[in-house]
Specification:
There is one protein chain. With about 130 residues, the chain is α+β, with helices and mostly antiparallel strands. Helices cover about 60% and strands about 20% of the residues. It has helices at about 1-25, 60-70, 75-85, 100-115, 120-130; strands at about 35-40, 50-55, 90-95. Strands 1-2-3 form a three-stranded mixed β-sheet. Helix 1 packs across helix 3.
Length: about 130
């Protein structure tokens, strides 16, 4: 059973790589903005794949891009079938990955906290770290 899980993970990585390349090089829809494929989960029977994408831009641009990916889903799946030899090409389900937005928001908060600290607080922390 462990060997099957390894194969599924390898297939998921290859699917992620190929879909990223297909979107970047072959999808010609102008509504597809700056998309990054951040992850892929393939079901145990390899008939379904959740593709996590991050979209740079406003929420309107994200909605537009997700709609364009849904419309291009058939094309992307057929190209994926040509590139990867599997018994069944997985059905694609695009999901918006908001973890990148979350990490950016946390980074901004940490930056604000750091900028609010007085220089004497930072010097005290540096002295403690040296000891």
């Amino acid at each position: 059973m462990n060997g099957l899980r390894v194969r599924i993970e390898r297939v998921a990585l290859q699917v992620q790589k190929e879909i990223s390349d297909i979107i970047r090089m072959q999808v010609k829809d102008p509504h597809v903005g700056f998309v990054t494929v951040t992850g892929c989960e393939v079901s145990n029977d390899m008939t379904h794949a959740k593709v996590f994408v991050s979209v740079l831009g406003s929420s309107e641009q994200r909605t537009e891009t997700m709609g364009a990916l849904e419309r291009a889903k058939g094309f992307i799946r057929s190209e994926l079938g040509r590139r990867i030899r599997l018994r069944v090409t997985p059905e694609l389900h695009f999901k918006l990955d908001e973890s990148v937005d979350y990490s950016i928001r946390i980074g901004h908060m940490l930056g604000e906290i750091t900028s609010q600290e007085s220089p004497s607080d930072i010097e005290k922390q540096e002295i403690r770290a040296d000891e």
